[in-house]
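Reviewers asked in the last cycle whether our approach scales beyond single polypeptides. To address this, we selected a multi-component target totalling 271 residues and predicted its structure end to end. The input consisted of the following lines:
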Amino acid sequence: MSLPHAQKQNFDSIPSLDISVLHSFDDPEMSADLVNELIEIYLMETTRLLDLIQSDLTGHEWSLVKRNAHTIKGSSGNLGLLRMARLSEELEYGAHTQDTATVLLDQMKQEFEIVGQTLNDELKRRKQCAF
Amino acid sequence: MSTSLPATPLSKRVLIAEDDAVTRTFVTRLVQSEGYDPVTCNDGREAVRILSTDANFCVAIFDSWMPHLEGIDIIHFMHTERRLMRIPVMMISSLPDSKVISSGFAAGVSLFLPKPFSSEKFQSTFRLLLGHNSTLSRRQ
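The resulting structure, written as C-alpha cells, was:
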C-alpha cells in the first residue's frame, strides 16, 4: 500500500540566490578567499546535513530533523541562498507529518543540486579571477 | 569611594560558540578583521568547558540553539561566577521572537544579532558590544 502523497509546496517565487550577499563579503579588510572558504564549507556541510536529515526522518527523530534543518536554514540565509533557507524553515516549523517532511526534504535536495551547481560555478569563476 | 581593581589591559580574545560551520567561519573571519583573536568551539558544552578555566575574553558570541547546551544555558553558567559575569555576550539567533529576546535579556544577553546578518551588521553590533565592555571596565 502506498502512502498518501503530501502536497508539494511551490517555492518557485523565491529567488534561489541573492548574489549580492556573496559580493558583500568581498571586503578588502576581510580574508581574500573568504567567499571560497564559506562556499566549500557550505557544500560539504549541507551534503552531510541532508544525509543526516534523511536518517533522522527514517528513524522518526523529529527533534534532530528540526535541529539539522535549522542549521541549514542559518547557513543558507547567511550565504543568500533564499529558497534553500525558506525550504529549511518550512521543514523546521511546518512539517507535521512524515509525508510532508519527506516531500520537503526531496525539494531541499533538488534545490541543493541547483545551488550546488551555482556555487561551484562561482567558485571556479573566483579561482580563475585570482590568477 | 569605590575600590578599583588593578588596571589590566583588556583581552583581545573573543569566545565564539556556534555549531553551524559556515556561520562559525564567517564570524571568526569577521572577528579577526576587527583585530581580535577568536577562540572557537562547536557547541555549548565545549564553551562551558573553556569558560571553566579561562575567563580572559573581552566578548563572547553564542548561537542560541546548539547541541548539548544552548546559548542561554552558557549564560546561566557564566552568571554563577563573578569572573565570567563581566563578559558581554552577543547572541546570534534565527529565532529572535519576543519570547526568546526577553528571556535572553533577562538571562544577561547584552545584544542580539538575528540571522542572517551582513558583515556590516555584525561589525556594528560587535563594536557596540566592545563599547559596552569598556563602560563596564571603567566602572570596576
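Residues 51 and 109 of chain A are 10 Å apart (CA to CA). We regard this as preliminary and will revisit it once experimental data from Aim 1 are available.
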